[in-house]
Design a protein that fits this description.
The protein is an alpha/beta fold. Helices cover about 40% and strands about 15% of the residues. Helix 6 links the parallel strand 3 and strand 4. The longest helix is centred in the last third of the chain and has 25 residues.
Length: about 350
């Protein structure tokens, strides 16, 4: 009987709980409001002629290159950051190679590495999910070909200093360092400012979070022209759809919308952290548009917390399956009215939570 490669049969599966998402969606780190009104207006102006043609990616890569103050040759648009990770694994990993990640981490790193047959090296985060610089450096071997680090990290919201990431890149000259900046807008610091210090660094960005365009699946890789040129050989020339490409300039031009949304999310982050402090609930300070908190000591506690919030019309994400996160729940942040409703529900749950929530 014909079967896929053994590496594919062995790879972990990832099934996000997308079905039945009834309620205020604070479970997937999406924009809780909307995309820019300019993007909606552009969508309404799309014609049949825009859709019958194959999409042309390169002109929009020049647009985003100007926005990021890099050259077009340093940019590759992708079908979300997920495709970017997939392309990197396909381009750089053979079965005898190793890839290094810091756990807990975004699940798709492990999925795409496993598909290549390469060995995945998991480095545990430090105390309070701090970035384990020394352990990452010690994990690098002659077989290391890829190091993937989300900054800020998902699901913890913790960060590595850019100087630490440069140090890692220099410690592994024969490996590619992917710095996944999906939550950059909420953090404000980027490895793009350091890209000339190490040619083996690629930065990934997305339009799924702050820009509110998760449904359009649009991401971008930025890095050394030689590395990008190699990735173009792996990528389909039509990997980004015409609708996403048409909306990109309008999304980039509406600075005011992004700034306002990010400001309110950061404000909401401070409000939630203050509320958790007052309630004595353990959480980890975040630089992203979400906060990870401890709902108890077990998976059952986390599941109960998620259910209690769902009954109050709020969807949050159980992260107990992530390494070091047993009993933890991740809560997405949003605009002021979203945070008002979230905090009201949270107060009710904490008052009535049968097991109690783990104290600080």
């Amino acid at each position: 009987m014909l079967k896929p490669r053994q590496a594919v049969l062995n790879m972990p599966s990832y099934h996000p709980p997308l079905a039945g998402r009834q309620g205020m969606r604070l479970d997937f780190n999406e924009n809780t409001d909307a995309c820019s009104p300019r993007v909606l207006q552009r969508l309404q102006r799309l014609s049949a002629d825009d859709l019958v043609k194959y999409p042309e990616r390169e002109p929009l890569e020049a647009v985003i290159a100007e926005f990021l103050n890099v050259t077009p040759g340093e940019v590759l648009l992708t079908n979300g950051v997920d495709e970017a990770i997939h392309l990197l694994c396909q381009a750089y990993l053979d079965p005898e190679d190793e890839a290094v990640i810091v756990v807990p981490a975004y699940s798709m790193y492990a999925v795409y590495v496993a598909a290549t047959g390469a060995e995945l090296v998991r480095v545990r985060a430090g105390k309070d999910f701090s970035f384990p610089l020394r352990d990452v450096k010690n994990s690098i071997s002659r077989r290391t070909r890829l190091i993937a680090i989300a900054n800020p990290n998902n699901p913890t919201g913790r960060v590595a200093r850019c100087e630490e990431l440069v140090e890692i890149a220099r410690s592994a000259p024969d490996a590619l360092l992917l710095v996944d900046e999906a939550y950059f807008e909420f953090y404000g610091k980027t490895m793009l400012d350091y890209r000339n210090e190490a040619r083996n660094v690629l930065v990934a960005r997305t339009f799924s979070k702050a820009y509110g365009m998760a449904g359009l699946r649009l991401g971008v890789l930025i890095g050394d022209e030689d590395q990008i040129r190699g990735l173009r050989r792996v990528a389909s020339p039509y990997n980004v759809n015409a609708v996403a490409l048409a909306c990109l300039p309008d999304a980039l031009e509406d600075h005011a919308y992004i700034q306002e949304y990010v400001h309110e999310v950061r404000e909401g982050r401070a409000r939630l952290e203050q509320a958790l402090n007052s309630a004595g609930v353990q959480y980890w300070p975040s630089e992203a548009n979400f906060v990870l908190l401890r709902a108890g000591q077990s998976k059952a506690d986390a599941a109960n917390f998620v259910e209690q919030m769902r009954q109050r019309g709020i969807l949050v994400r159980d992260r107990s399956a992530d390494e070091g996160c047993e009993g933890c729940v991740r809560v997405t942040l949003g605009r002021r009215q979203v945070m008002d409703r979230l905090l009201l529900a949270l107060t009710s749950v904490l008052e009535n939570f049968p097991q109690g929530v783990s104290p600080r």
